[in-house]
């Protein structure tokens, strides 16, 4: 392609994936608002991008892998810019629903704090390689100097490579979800060769050699030297393999601090989309908690953690699909024992059905933790229409250098 094919464009905003957007729309990855860029348009995507006039917010990416690795999207922007952009995305989503509120300063997790990641690992002619996929590509980039991952996860890279040597086919890369736990690495492998007797023996030997706390191959437990427990308040929970956990311990602590502040003084709390008990178990130090979650294994893990812990108030659990079968006002206000606060932390789709029922039940205080500003704003509108005040929002940037946005908000029922 010659320079004659190049076009020039001015970036007006960032899209939801963090790409710069110019008129068209034309998407230009790794550009910033106000920048004049040139490149070759391929459909709605600008490629071979040159920055003609850089933004004042453009910085040298801290990681040497950034150019080829797709693990991060926003390392070329200053921390201040990213914090403001994430705040503005949430603010604009609320404005579109006719809502406004106070925003607390963004809490950003430090570099090298990601405690859970999925590595792509494949066999090569010479051995094996592990890393992240490149931007919109199948090519795997090795990441020996990654700025994102906790050092404990970095230690998993050579281990993941030895697992690929033993059990990856030549064609399909392994997907290895690694979680750091106090007991060691929790490794959950998918897309490997089917398990047979010899492979099982080799994998068990590797688990022992590398002191992997737990190794799971598809749905089969290969070895568990120690349960890979996570502390939630005074409880220790052993999550099911690959189960959801907040991305960083630092982010989890910031979200929990906000949730504790919002629900302070409540005697009975319902935790909706409770996972393995990230919020329910610490909350149970001061309140009785009913934890509801769709995945049975996670509910069982939460319950087992509570039963072994000392000093917690009563925690009841329920496996329930809260999209199809939300808790109703009669569940939320059982005779003589209504919940005086709710915590709700749904997946990206939000919690349309459950929020409508919370509003009907008039649960006085709601801590809403969200990973999607659009569904959050939609649900916030439902609560506002039912008489709730949106007191404040705090963005917690535990997905540093990515376009992903996490926030927590306080809703209280007006008198
Ligand atoms: C964002 S995670 C939050 C988990 C937990 N609050 C935490 O902080 O670890 C959302 C949770 O919702 C659960 N979930 C997804 N769809 C659900 C549904 N329809 N009904 C109930 N739970 C669901 C997932 O299994 C996951 O544990």
TrEMBL record:
Q: Name one GO biological process term.
A: rRNA base methylation
The record's SUPFAM superfamilies line, in alphabetical order, gives:
S-adenosyl-L-methionine-dependent methyltransferases
Keyword match S-adenosyl-L-methionine: yes
Keywords for the protein's UniProt record, in alphabetical order: 4Fe-4S, Iron, Iron-sulfur, Metal-binding, Methyltransferase, S-adenosyl-L-methionine, Transferase
Positions bound to S-adenosyl-L-methionine: 246, 273, 293, 345
Task: Say yes or no: keyword 4Fe-4S present.
Answer: yes
Taken from the record, one Pfam family name reads tRNA_U5-meth_tr
Q: Which InterPro entries match?
A: MeTrfase_TrmA_AS (IPR030390), NA-bd_OB-fold (IPR012340), SAM-dependent_MTases_sf (IPR029063), U5_MeTrfase_fam (IPR010280)
The record's active-site residues are 371 (nucleophile), 371
> Which superkingdom does the taxonomy of this entry point to?
Bacteria
One GO MF term, please?
A: rRNA (uridine-C5-)-methyltransferase activity
Gene3D superfamilies, sorted: 2.40.50.1070, Nucleic acid-binding proteins (2.40.50.140), Vaccinia Virus protein VP39 (3.40.50.150)
Give the Enzyme Commission number. Answer: 2.1.1.190
Annotated family: Belongs to the class I-like SAM-binding methyltransferase superfamily. RNA M5U methyltransferase family.
State the protein's name: 23S rRNA (Uracil(1939)-C(5))-methyltransferase RlmD
């Amino acid at each position: 392609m010659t320079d004659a094919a190049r076009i020039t464009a001015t970036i007006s905003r960032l899209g939801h994936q963090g790409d710069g957007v110019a008129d068209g729309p034309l998407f230009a990855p790794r550009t910033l608002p106000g920048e004049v860029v040139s490149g070759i348009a391929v459909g709605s995507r600008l490629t071979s991008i040159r920055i003609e006039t850089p933004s004042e917010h453009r910085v040298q990416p801290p990681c040497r892998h950034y150019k080829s690795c797709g693990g991060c999207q926003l390392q070329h922007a200053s921390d201040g810019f990213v914090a403001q952009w994430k705040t503005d995305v949430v603010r604009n989503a609320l404005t579109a629903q006719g809502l406004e509120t106070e925003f607390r300063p963004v809490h950003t997790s430090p570099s090298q704090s990601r405690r859970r990641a999925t590595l792509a690992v494949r066999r090569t002619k010479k051995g094996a390689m592990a890393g992240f996929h490149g931007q919109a590509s199948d090519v795997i980039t090795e990441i020996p100097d990654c700025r994102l991952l906790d050092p404990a996860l970095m230690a998993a890279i050579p281990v993941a490579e030895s697992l690929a040597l033993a059990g990856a086919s030549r064609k399909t890369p392994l997907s290895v979800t690694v979680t750091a736990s106090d007991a060691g690495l929790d490794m959950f492998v998918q897309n490997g060769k089917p398990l047979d007797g010899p492979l099982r023996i080799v994998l068990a030997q590797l688990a022992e050699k590398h002191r992997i706390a737990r190794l799971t191959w598809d749905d089969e437990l290969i070895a568990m030297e120690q349960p890979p427990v996570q502390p939630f308040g005074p409880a220790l929970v052993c999550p099911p393999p690959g189960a959801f956990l907040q991305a960083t311990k630092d982010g989890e602590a910031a979200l929990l601090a906000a949730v504790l502040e919002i629900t302070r003084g409540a005697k009975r709390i319902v935790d909706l989309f409770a996972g393995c008990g990230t919020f329910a178990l610490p909350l149970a130090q001061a309140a009785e908690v009913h934890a509801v979650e769709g995945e049975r294994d996670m509910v069982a893990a939460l319950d087992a953690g509570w039963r072994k812990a000392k000093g917690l108030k009563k925690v009841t659990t329920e496996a329930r699909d809260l999209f199809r079968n939300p808790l109703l006002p009669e569940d939320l206000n059982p005779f003589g024992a209504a919940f005086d606060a709710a915590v709700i932390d749904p997946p990206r789709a939000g919690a349309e059905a459950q929020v409508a029922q919370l509003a009907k039940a008039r649960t006085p205080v709601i801590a809403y933790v969200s990973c999607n500003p659009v569904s959050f704003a939609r649900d916030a509108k439902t609560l506002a229409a039912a008489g709730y005040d949106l007191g404040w929002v705090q963005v917690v940037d535990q997905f540093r250098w990515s376009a992903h946005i996490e926030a927590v908000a306080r809703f209280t029922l007006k008198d």
